[in-house]
Queue: 3 jobs
Job 1
Amino acid sequence: MTTNNPRALSVFEALESEVRSYCRGWPTVFDRAQGARLTDEDGHSYLDFFAGAGSLNYGHNNPVLKRALIDYIERDGITHGLDMATTAKRAFLETFENVILRPRDLPYKVMFPGPTGTNAVESALKLARKVKGRESVVSFTNAFHGMSLGSLAVTGNAFKRAGAGIPLVHGTPMPFDNYFDGQVPDFLWFERLLEDQGSGLNKPAAVIVETVQGEGGINVARAEWLRALQELCQRQDMLLIVDDIQMGCGRTGGFFSFEEAGIVPDIVTLSKSISGYGLPMSLCLFKGELDVWEPGEHNGTFRGNNPAFVTAAATLDAYWADGQMEKQTLARGEQVEQTLLAIGEEHPEAGPQIRGRGLVWGMKFADPARATTVCKRAFELGLLVETSGPESEVVKVLPPLTVSSAELDEGLQVLAKAVRDTA
């Protein structure tokens, strides 16, 4: 289903930087989108199991959110507000407190650090260092936390780190859950380094972790591992930062991905689907006693994206006030898991390993090139899926949370065919 017009992509190839990436795997010009489907300018329809890399949890042009946004724009509501008080920001904060924080008994202050996930991570790292007076931050193997320098320093992917062009300092990697296939006790290496005065590890200010590593290959941390990590941080006077940028906002079931483990991180970063509509927005949440910022000590020109506040509040009211979204996501997740397991059983010798939670799943292939081939074939058949993992060896399934059961089955059958066709 590539474009029928060979000139359609020429302006992108002529003028746009070589840094573009997703468009290379999906060589067409998209024109419209609604729900779980995109349509290109030639009229071809594609099921979207990419969801804006997790920023479209509620689908494209969700009608409830679109109505709220149009109404706000038509009444000349504030668009750009820096950190000024606005009616849109107040409505979001009140809704976020009433629908998300208070029912979960979470004691967080809310910071608007800028429009993107890496802005949230940078602010979290700065705050942790300011609070503890130490510069070192521990991250985990195969982590991804963003593309600015501070975020890259706690990111594991060698290719992305190399793009920095300078040494990335003050970050120390430790093994993620099951990194040694269960052969080494959890945190053995980490605790030994912390307690050994000759280890060379500076006392960390914080530990930053994803409960499910999305870009790292859909690596799922066990609840008991996360609880043990929180206990370790408390014993060693380190702050625990959970990066919930891709896995938060309901992706794993609960609104926050750490809810299942029963932990309360010191700092949480959110972005991607927090606006609900794909509009740029991010949050840094932290316990009240950590709010040691001086006014203006961290800021950003576009931290007051009021249209995003409008759609964010509408999203919380529409999808999180009654608890049904979590139940639906878990049910859809079981549907995905069963189908992916069946795909694996079709190919017992070269079949993929299946792992995931909620509505984020991965199929890891022994031959890394196979994952890319499967994604290419899926596109030809009308399905958008991407790869992840350090060698792009995982096919990543990330549909909108609002996808219907029928659409989900349709896309999974296309994916099964793509696996068969590339065997």
Job 2
Amino acid sequence: MKDVKEQHHGRSQGKPYRRPRKDPVRILAFEALRAVAERDAYANLVLPGLLRAAEEEAVRKGERFDRRDAALATELVYGTLRRQGTYDAVIAACVDRPLREVDPPVLDVLSLGAHQLLGTRIPSHAAVSATVELARVVLGDGRARFVNAVLRKVAARDLTEWLGEVAPPWDEDPEDHLAVVHSHPRWVVSALWDALGGDRAGIEDLLAADNERPEVTLVARPGRATPAEIEESLPAGAVLPGRWSPYALRLAEGGDPAAVDAVREGRAGVQDEGSQLVALALAAAPLDGPDRRWLDGCAGPGGKAALLAALAAGRGAELVAAEKQPHRARLVARALSGNPGPHQVVVADGTRPAWAPGSFDRVLVDVPCSGLGALRRRPEARWRRRPEDLAAFAPLQRALLTEALNAVRVGGVVAYATCSPHLAETRAVVEDVLDSPNAPAATPIDARPLLPALPHLGSGPDIQLWPHLHSTDAMYLALLRRTA
């Protein structure tokens, strides 16, 4: 393949200069990718603000920026981030230097173009033309010529043909093959495969699920709203029932949770069903003796705490929601505002408890982790995390679980949860704490009977949810009863 070199020279001789056409959708997508790369921002946090600003600017100018524009911008951002590894391999085959020597803004524009060519139904000529115009606006004419030359090479083949060229054969290196085809770092592929413990079909289904757009799931908070009430308040077909949680609703494609009255009023919230199931399992665990005080030891930003508080209120129990970071504690307080039962939000470090030992009957610790279970929602996390990050989380995870066992009374129940299927963050943590002489004695509870509708829960006693099997984030849950 003929090499393509980045050009920096000025305008071509003899041709009148034409100002580049500004496309607000693609400019917005580029700005989002730059924020993710430069500021370590998360797309799901930065994109809504950019969309609002684009809509306001369009109104100011008397132009239009409608739902279709927002949908295209969202697809360009998330699609590019999800398939970044694949597109990097394709682009690398079309340039004459290592990608690390291509300026990051140029690479972002190329990736946006590659996604339009290989991951959408946008016609090739339109994808190239629109991306070159974007390059002229944000990079200048010289680099736009480089973008044009590279994208014309990318456009010469479809995705299947490119994968046949740039992905190592399965027989030679199955993990690297999966990494390129499904756009995950090799170490993540290896870790997920170990956790899944399955065959080739299972790991391919999981990696493919990570690259699908997740549904928006709502939780109707008990005592404040019901799924039926929410459904009746919306147009027909706007929501679908949840799959597993009795409090869940799924928004139809393109649905906006901000348009749901119950969400705006705090009677419902946006919450993945996996997170709902963790709270429901803890609340359903059998308990001897009193059931008056519950603790969420890592409560921010408040989704599980709000559901637990509502469930506790139905039994006359109190929830204490603890969060170390003050700004996240404020989010928890906002999520719990309006809860009908007794509750309190405290700024406290779960590894240095602000409560006496044995103070609670039920305790949840949803510990900080790598986030590898939520790659559908935060695709950039797969490129941001490194294997060494797990070693940094490990002491904190063990300390939080140990103190959770100290916080619960003898006979009480602790739920250890994490949004990661990595074995180093799940079973290894639980086993180490159960074996530790520094932790109170405890025994595992089989969590599977507490969620009887769910299939594919393995041999227990813990539970690992999967995007491809349960259409949830890959939440992990272990229930432990303190015995001494």
Job 3
Amino acid sequence: MMTLSPVRETFLIFLRLGLTAFGGPIAHLGYFREEFVHRRRWLSDAAYADLVALCQFLPGPASSQVGLALGLQRAGYRGALAAWCGFTLPSAILLILFAIGLVEFGDRLPGGLIAGLKIVAVAVVAQAVWGMAKSLCPDWPRRVLALAAAAFLLALPSAWSQIGVIVVGGLIGLSLKQSGITTPGEALAAGIGRRAASLWLLLFFLGLAGLPLLAQAFPGQALALVDAFYRAGALVFGGGHVVLPLLQAETVAPGWIGSETFLAGYGAAQAVPGPLFTFAAFLGAAGNLAPNGWGGGLLALAAIFLPAFLLVAGALPFWDALRTNQRARAALAGVNAVVVGILLAALYDPVWTSAIHGPLELLLAALAFAALMFGKQAPWRVVAGCALAGALLL
């Protein structure tokens, strides 16, 4: 049996996830946890929660940043690139093809099929909440903290609320008993030193400050496109749907793309697997001005994800050193409990509220959850089954 190199192995694993991971960023975190914590044991549940907490702090697409960090840990910079390509390109290619052939392609996939994909997201997120709560909320103080975080986010849903509860969770964690705090597991930095990390962070801020100046000094659609999508990837906290208003302002307002085309692309983005940030590929390809088509799509895609790589590579070494400090571990125990609360809030809104509208949807979600939890079925099989059931029954 041929042994795959770490880079090729990383690419193939993330390619499969990129072809099957429906349901948005919260569901993606569930898929990642099942694949890399439980099945392959690349890292522990606590280390994975540390990684999720870091990426929740950073602006940009949180699930893609977790994927980049996993690839970086497994196989260095080439591993990060392999993880990004595998997870991102399937949906990006589909959306570029949709943009190019919009009239011939039609509006979107059948409604029942999309409904089935939303239902499986309920099961995936519920499984993630259950598993992470068992390991990260072992006592009542952390359970109460998780429930309070979920209640607060449901009452005041916003990206800033999410960041706020993480900060508060860390402060409350400082008062937790030291005996209840686990020691950190394997390193997350994947061999990146602080000097290299500082360079990546410097490049991130140079891009954020320098691209607008370059776009003004050298007028042209290509540079304006890079500036707009880099800024969207660098400044949006919460990822996923949060980026849509900014993308609309950057592309529809200046006349790069019509509002009807924008909404058609948004509909298509809900029907493909992988990160929602690949919607940028559609916008770049469907633009009225050159570069568009394949060139514009790939340029917009690279620009919106570039800040994610720079931030992950820049933050991981400092995060890894910080989490080995005992007081930092105490704070992180509170943050991890809040991460469970964040997932719990997301399980209800938007995952549950957008997917479960009656007894039939509830039954399908329960069957999918049972298949994942008790049947130990591969996530892609459950996705395929729910999609087929939705197309036939809903």
